[in-house]
Amino acid sequence: MRRYALILLALLWAAPAAAAEAAATPWWVWPAALFAVSFAIGIVGVLAGVGGGVLFVPIVGGFFPFHLDFVRAAGLLLALSGALSAAPALLRSGMASMRLAMPLALVGSVTSIAGALLGLALPTNVVQTALGVTILAIVLLMWRAKKSEYPEVPMPDPLGAALRLNGVFHDPAAGRDVQWCVHRTPSGLVAFAGIGLLAGLFGLGAGWANVPVLNLLMGAPLKLSGGTSGFVLSVVDTSAAWVYVNRGAVLPVLVAPSIVGVMLGAKIGARLLRVVRASTVRKIVIGLLLAAGARALLKGLGIWN
Predict the structure, then answer these.
(1) pLDDT for 114-124, tens place per residue?
(2) How many alpha carbons fall within 13 Å on the CB side of residue 232?
(3) How far is the C-alpha of 207 from the C-alpha of 46, rounded, in Å?
(4) How confident is the model at residue 49 (pLDDT cuts 50, 70, 90)?
(5) Rounded to whole angstroms, how far apart are CA atoms 230 and 14?
(6) CB 123 within 8 A of CB 208
(7) With CB atoms 3.0 to 4.6 Å apart as the test, which of 2, 119, 206, 225 could cross-link to 199 if both were Cys?
């Protein structure tokens, strides 16, 4: 593992040179580096509730010599694999609510198909520039966003009540059962439609926005929002991923080591979710996204290729 870490560090610091000399690089270096990156992303993505795609696409797209279409397809499959790997444990532990996830995931999955079609139709440099701007906007959102462990929801809205978006989950840290319900459900559905569009367009997954919408807009408890976010990913990303698969944008040497790495990392992340400090993970994610977003923007503008 130390060997893979050293390879990854060298790639990140010498990305332009590495990309230029990709033909002379032994083939096994890229799968090894992708496995190491994806393993770390799998752990951090589950802990932060952001999904793997939002970290994978800007990092691999900016520092590895792969076309962005292949990276976006791999990002969706990676986020999907990580979500599917963690979802059973989250559902068994009560940290995710299928009842809350399904209406939102249905809306997001429809718009993610439109986003995927749009992303494949646009020029690569336009998508790369837009990706950099989006990632930097996500960094700002994550930096300034406030989170509430147990939001106060006086009463559910009519739509939320009709869909029975309420329940009880056990918080091991607090040692008690938490009764929850949501409000502003129509606004939440609109927000998830936009999230799905961006997920399909950039291959980012959707966890980076799922948690703030569920927690701050709709009033779901923070831990339940993080767990349910992973379950929503498994539905939304499946729809967008099929578009990339149908267009032949799946590269096995990129996808296979990435999926194996993120699935192993996600299993560890799901177990660490109860004990790791969220503030520490948040700082790590913000730092990684800041570097990757700046790199993607500069690459899209032709300043740093």
Answers:
(1) 999 998 888 88
(2) 39
(3) 9
(4) low
(5) 33
(6) no
(7) 206
Q: Where are the alpha helices (DSSP H) in the chain?
A: 2-13, 15-20, 29-48, 53-63, 68-93, 98-121, 124-144, 158-162, 185-202, 207-212, 222-246, 252-272, 278-300
Q: Which residues contact 114 (CB under 8 A, 6 or more apart)?
A: 197, 200
What is the full DSSP assignment across 232-280?
A: HHHHHHHHHHHHHHHTT---HHHHHHHHHHHHHHHHHHHHHTTTS-HHH
Residues 6 or more apart whose Cβ sits within 8 Å of residue 147: 211, 212, 215, 216, 222
Please choose, from the candidates 64, 58, 59, 123, the residue with its C-alpha nearest in 3D space to the C-alpha of residue 253.
Answer: 64
Measured in degrees and rounded to the nearest 5, phi and psi for residue 186 equal -60, -40
Per residue, what are the HEC states of 149-182? CCCCCCCCCHHHHHCCCEEEEEECCCCEEEEEEC
Angle between helices 29-48 and 68-93 (to 10 degrees): 40
Q: How many CA atoms lie within 13 A of 156 on its CB side?
A: 17
CB 139 within 8 A of CB 293: yes
- Tens digits of per-residue pLDDT, 161-219? 888 888 887 777 667 777 888 888 999 999 999 888 888 888 876 666 787 888 888 88
Q: Tokens at residue 252, please?
A: 């096995």
Amino acid at 31: P
Q: How far apart are CA 54 and CA 195, in angstroms?
A: 12
Terminal Cα distance for the chain, rounded:
29
pTM: 0.75
Higher pLDDT, 23 or 304: 304
Which residues have C-beta within 8 Å of that of residue 144, sequence separation ≥ 6?
Answer: none
